[in-house]
Amino acid sequence: MRNVDEEARLSALHSYGVLDTPRPAELDDLTRLAASVFGTPMSAVSLIDRDRQWFAGKTGIAEDQTPLDVSFCAHTIPDRRPLVVPDARTDGRFRSYANVTADPHIRFYAGAPLIDDDGFALGAMCVIDDRPGDLGPRQHEALGTLSRQATGHLSLMRGRLMLAELGDELARATQREEDLIATISHELRTPVTAIQGYLELLADDERLAGYDRLVEPIHRNSQRLVGMVDHLLDGTRPANAPLALHRTPVELHMVLAAAVRSCVPAAESRGVEVVVEPATQASVVSADAARLTQAVQQLVRNAILFTPPGGTVTVRAGYTPAPSIEVADTGVGIPADELPHVFQRFFRGRHARHQAVPGVGLGLHIAQEAAAAHGGRVTLSSTGRGTTARLTLP
Fold first, then answer.
1. The pLDDT of residue 195 is above 50
2. CA 155 to CA 117: how far, in whole Å?
3. C-alpha distances in angstroms, 143 versus 94, 205, 348?
4. pLDDT score at 147
5. Which DSSP string do the residues of 321-344 spell out, in sequence order?
6. What is the helix (H) or strand (E) element at residue 46, kind and residue range?
7. What does the pLDDT read at residue 1?
8. How does pLDDT run across 215-227, given as a tens digit for each residue?
9. Burial class (CB in 10 A: 0-12, 13-18, 19+), 41
10. Are the C-beta atoms of 328 and 337 separated by less than 8 Å?
11. Could you tell me where the DSSP H helices lie in the chain?
């Protein structure tokens, strides 16, 4: 068990990324402060590796590292308590050490262990003198404070290292995602589009008129597949690629009606009623009709998918205080802890997973992107008895 514990300690030590690197200025500064406070010519932040001690910070010490068999700091690791050696010449543990019998002629040593947030002893904060000495109660306390300061600096360094590694991993993940999108676009959409073209040629061939019942479902499903690919590409557009808009005067209620029409087959297949409230007034907005219709379509489709058979989805347009389209359903609702995440790409909540709701978690993200490109936004409110999505334009 002791070997297992030591391996875990060494793994924790190496996770800080400080060994065999230039000494951090913060730790050198800390050792200068310690030497000044205790009036010693030498001080160090010593990290205890498998067979050596590495000085992550030092003052008055020539070497960057020493073998473990002459390390005073290593003795703080098993006991995890401060170690004070008033005169190394009279201490049986240390009097034969090379750094006691020869340069730098260590006599006084005081070290406090570096205990990290996970409880691992990494090394020690120490002060060293070539003359005998001792510590009073207040100096014991000061050494413990400096030790905690050193551990805090090490934790900050590891945090920066982990953030840098995370940034690299995110960059790699983004590149993999973009490669996947390019592959989908080329390897899937291109051949399916070609299939559609051949199907149209077959449909125009009078000699194959009797095969319409075979060609039609192939054509319908190829269109569905192209739609799915386009949906995926819309939802995975790089964040730094602005959504191009072709603005024209658009009547808001016509956008709503077009979006609902495209969702009627899905509503009928699931036994969900879609109710469109009559327009109370005409309102013209400057918008990209196709993009805005697509956004509303995503909201309506999402509401249909999460509404059980016999439920209702109500769609209405509002005009005050700003133009908006509201989609309200009588579905399962969204748990409160999931609401902050629903616009993230590929996010699928508990209901989507447990009820095997179709989709890849891009609909709300696409809607929000389209709304944002118009200077608006999509907001959601939900109770246990349904969800209301509101797309508001400036």
1. yes
2. 8
3. 21, 92, 52
4. 95
5. SS-EEEEEE-S----TTTGGGTTS
6. strand 42-48
7. 34
8. 667 766 666 666 6
9. middle
10. no
11. 2-14, 25-38, 76-79, 98-101, 137-183, 190-204, 212-235, 252-270, 289-305, 350-354, 363-373
Return the pLDDT at 324: 87
Q: Which residue has the tokens 């730790």?
A: 27
The pair of three-digit structure tokens given for residue 142, joined into one six-digit string: 């000061």
Query: Cα(48)–Cα(284) distance, rounded to whole angstroms?
Result: 72
Evaluate the CA torsion angle 288, 289, 294, 299 in order and state its sign.
positive
Q: Are 74 and 50 in contact (CB under 8 A)?
A: no
Closest of 248, 392, 249 to residue 321, by C-alpha: 392
CA Rg value for the chain: 35
**Closest among 131, 123, 117 to 57, alpha carbons compared:** 123
Question: What's the pTM value of the predicted model, to 2 decimals?
Answer: 0.52
Both tokens of 138, joined, read: 């207040």
d(CA 375, CA 296): 15
pLDDT of 304 above 70: yes
